[in-house]
Amino acid sequence: MIEYIVAKFEGISRQAVEHYGVNPAIFLVIYLISVPFFYYSLLRMIRALAKKRGKEVVVWSTVFLCATVAPFIYVLFFGRNLPWWVYGIIALLIGQGVFSLIRKLRRTKGAGPSMP
User: What angle do CA 56, 62, 64 make, to 5 degrees?
Assistant: First the structure.
């Protein structure tokens, strides 16, 4: 049973590399590397929001956005022959992240100066 699953995964992985130019192992490594940055930036962003430190919110929101979209940027730049809807989903994910970041930045700027 395990051999069947491994063989199936290797076949799908090989097909993804040959047909789409995207290596699932590289995607997974980028994803796993970005996870600690994602959670740490989320924690720091929440702390900065609680303490009303606008500049810190901007920094940690940007790190949060980069950690979120990093694996999808890999697919966007190195993928080829992908269906049009994959590009659409990636664009929507990145756009939603940028929109959320801009909305948070505008909200923190309206909150007034940060206290040291």
Answer: 100
- Under the banding of pLDDT at 50, 70 and 90, the label for residue 111 is low
Distance from C-alpha of 76 to C-alpha of 71, rounded to nearest angstrom: 9
The Cα–Cα gap between 6 and 112 comes to 56
Share of the chain above pLDDT 90, in %: 16
In a domain, 90, yes or no: yes
What whole-number distance in Å separates Cα of residue 91 and Cα of residue 84? 11
Number of domains in the chain: 1
Range of the domain at 30: 2-110
* Residue 89 token pair: 């989903």
Q: What's the predicted TM-score (pTM) here?
A: 0.69
pLDDT tens, residue by residue, 67-96: 988 888 888 888 888 888 888 888 888 888
